[in-house]
Design goal:
single chain; 273 residues; alpha/beta; Stationary-phase Survival Protein Sure Homolog, Chain: A
Length: 273
């Protein structure tokens, strides 16, 4: 299978998760690595427009060459696909992230954002995340990633669709195809004062609360299964759009007539100059 696979992430180009993912992808084809040169966790889908992006070469722990950019994960994918690498890319894989990206996490995740960018640029893309921080599990997570990547290379993905894959801590019991669950963080803001007496703030998240739903990604990972969730880039609420069709008449009746131009009348003189 002579395919060109782009490997990226949001934990940084020297992350052990990226190393494990790149190692497994080389079994499937030619691999190019372009990832952020620092940690971009929680960076979301970013497009850097206010400055130039720089790229430099790195050497991974296995002796292979990689490239790191000072841009976001989504910037790295755009760079790679729009000309930094001359050969066309057949698949974008992002990860393996340290920590799961479940439920509404996908709106914050740089790992998922990289896969979104690949999808927008017309290439099948997958985001991989590992629940927990046990680096010994990256080897098993990499095997799961290779199996799913091989399937996507063979079967393809529908237009504007990407896969968000979460691998449980410990040996997976199997794979479940899921939808996004509902996870809510008890957000907090912590105020501190620096040595110069100026206030600064840390925005943090307490322990997440989640709902157990049998077909959700969170339930699957909690039960020890790999969760594979298809995500679509069309964020339109189509049911609401149909309902809003009935708003047209209501808005028409409340619309005020467009005011015409106001005619100015010269003021009368009240005295001599």
């Amino acid at each position: 299978m002579n395919k060109h696979i782009l490997v990226t992430n949001d934990d940084g180009v020297l992350s052990p998760g990226l190393l494990a993912l790149a190692h497994e992808m080389r079994i499937l084809g030619r691999v190019s690595v372009l990832a952020p040169d620092r940690n971009w966790s929680g960076g979301g889908h970013v497009k850097t427009l206010d400055r130039a992006l720089r790229v430099r070469e790195f050497l991974l722990a296995d002796g292979t060459t990689a490239f790191g950019s000072d841009g976001a994960p989504s910037d790295c994918v755009a760079l790679a696909m729009l000309g930094y690498f001359k050969e066309p890319i057949d698949l974008v894989v992002s990860g393996i992230n340290v920590g799961a990206n479940l439920g509404h996490d996908v709106t914050y995740s740089g790992t998922v954002a990289a896969a979104m960018e690949g999808t927008l640029l017309g290439v099948p893309s997958i985001a991989f995340s590992l629940a927990g921080a046990d680096h010994r599990m990256f080897t098993e997570a990499g095997r799961v990633a290779r199996m799913l990547a091989e399937l996507v290379l063979r079967e393809g993905l529908p237009r504007k669709t990407l896969l968000n894959v979460n691998i449980p801590a410990g040996l997976p019991k199997g794979i479940r195809f899921t939808r996004l669950g509902h996870r809510v963080y008890s957000e907090t803001v912590r105020k501190e004062v620096d040595p110069r007496g100026k206030a600064h703030y840390w925005v943090g998240a307490g322990p997440p609360l989640w709902e157990r739903e049998e077909d959700s990604d969170m339930t699957a990972v909690h039960d020890g299964y790999v969760s594979v969730t298809p995500l679509h880039m069309d964020l339109t609420d189509h049911q609401m759009l149909q309902k809003m069709a009935g708003w047209q008449d209501a808005l028409a009746t409340k619309r005020s007539p467009r005011p015409g131009k106001r005619r100015l009348t010269p003021a009368k003189r009240t005295g001599s100059r």
